[in-house]
Amino acid sequence: ISDQKPLGCWSVKHGQILTCPVVCNFETHEYIAVHDDKVLRIWKNEDINLDKAFKATLSADVYRIHSLPDGGPLVLFRGGGVRTLDVLLEAPQQEIENVISDEVIRWSGAFMEGQQPVLIFTTEKDEDFFVYVQKPKLSSLHKYKLEQQESSKPLCFAAHVTNHTVTLLCLYSNDSVYQVLIPLQQDTEEEEEKEILSKSLLLNFSVPGTVLKGTSLVVLDKDHVAVLGSLAVPGKEPRECLSIWNTKFQTLQTSKELPLGTSGQLWCYEEKFFLIHGKVLTVIMYKCETSSLAAAVGKLKDSQNLDVSSFVNWNTLEDEELVVSFQSQECVALKAESKMNLRSRRSTVAKVQPEGLSVGQLLLNLKDASTYVLESELRQLMSKAPTPDLQATIGCVVTALTDRCKRNPKYYPQNFLQEIVETRDLSYSLCPDLMAVALERKDMHLLQTCLERFPDIPEEITYACLKAFLSISEAHLQNIDLNLDSVICYIDVEFDDKEVKTEIVENGFSAEMEQDMCDTKIPRETQSSSDVDSCPVGLQKAALLNAVLHSAYTETFLLPHLKNLPAQQAILFLRYLYYLYVKCSEKINTTLPGTRSPTINQIMDWMCLLLDAHFTVMVMLPEAKELLSNLHKFVRAQVRFYSELNKIEGSLRELQRLNHLRESQTYSIEVLEII
């Protein structure tokens, strides 16, 4: 999510339609989907073709599939019937009862109550709303009718289960949230008579001068809810916003406008909001703390007060100054809503740092401090940070350092940054400006370390590093201290830094066979330089390029950037990849020696990417002709060699079978003719 890398993609056939959200089975790590209302599909992450995945045609239309971490998937049918996935797969064509009559399901949710899964869904018929509570494993069903609300109706629902009671929250069209308490009754097999559920007003979205029209509601904890909707101000156009409310004290905790618009849907999972903002999926982290009256009232008095009971990291929505607040041993990132207020706050902060000062305030105070004071305070801050908050603290420290680098071109704490990246478990998303600053300052060692350690580097930055590595001169690299562990074991260097020519014997080939198959011969002798005999780049540049090969990427996002690589640099990179490819082929296990050396798969993937991006250009360039020809002949020879191996695969298996059948104490001589 942090750098928008798709990890898997599957599609149904033309004409088929996915008719309910896909879920993950937490027990088996499988995906479950339904298309065309009745066709169930189950597949794993490594499966590529959805059409070849497990398929079961059901006897009734499916409304939703709910997956519980400890209770397994539950399948809710449009007629109100519920089955666990295991029971359904035993007989996919089993008859599904119709629980509801002429009613339409409007919402459903699944929860665990002790060891039993509980499924709740609401229906509508003739402007009346009903609530069903089912325990499918116990064949328990209870039906209720919601008390009607004059001149308004429910827009959406949310629920949670605590202490054997279902708390159903209903967002009504009169800009209010009502609460309905439903006790989980003793399990019976008969459907009880409809009982009318009374509701109580939980929250009214009344902010002075504004009216909040909610469209989606999610429960964060027992005291907080999040609402996605439009904020109507008299005389102005409505503006969509996301807000968090304290239901215990009926106060607005925080809110953020969404100027690009939303789809009206809001999801919440593992302390992250998911919503469609404009044309992208936006993920926003939040943290709810224990609700208190002081925090709630404080929020109303001062919208900039950091001591609130609910925090949200608005980083993903706009680029403003970052303030990090520590409260109750919990670290939360928060975007301040006004730079003006931040500036005014800076002027009132004392120069002496008190013990309880927040990280954000400390960093603001150190903005104009001397280099020595800044680095000393930051080292002390990292050493004192509590373990749960350590990562966020270090990310803020790096951000403070890179901000100063951008403000002051003469300032660059190279050793300090290198020490932090090497000794701390960082990621790109924690310090997104670090690699950009390192590229600007041409800090090749730091870029190499980041590429080797960060798991979430965007493809644009990976490409920028590759271009920088290929364009820098070998003479300049001689004076840079780099990690050479990935190359030192397979590139031999003499005292004058010239590579020793090593004998190239391809895996499974002799020079004569190569001559016969490919009409060319890769020389065994240590002669003049060629694409295979010598590494086309120096030791330092090879180490940098290996770091790029190890960086994770998605082809769809990397290919457009790779097409912008200058032709000469693309040829140089392809020569190096070809050199690595031949080196791997020398080894019987196709593995290069050394620490973090490129794998054969990484080399092949990058070769394919580079050829896809520059094939037309390379075909036209005379200097690339010999390289492409040699690469083609080498790959063709390997394909022929493995094809020959495939021909004797049956004979080899037969030998293996005979070895198992032979009695260990019997002596015999057998002659097998391989045709």
From TrEMBL:
Keywords: Activator, Nucleus, rRNA processing, Transcription, Transcription regulation. The keyword Ribonucleoprotein does not apply. Residues 361-673 form the Nucleolar protein 11 C-terminal domain. It holds the Pfam family NOL11_N. GO terms for molecular function: RNA binding. The keyword Metal-binding does not apply. Residues 1-287 form the Nucleolar protein 11 N-terminal domain. GO terms for cellular component: nucleolus. InterPro entries: NOL11 (IPR042859), Nol11_C (IPR048897), NOL11_N (IPR012584). Its main location: nucleus. It is found in: Nucleus, Nucleolus. This is NOL11 protein. It comes from Erpornis zantholeuca. The lineage of its organism: Eukaryota, Metazoa, Chordata, Craniata, Vertebrata. The gene is Nol11.
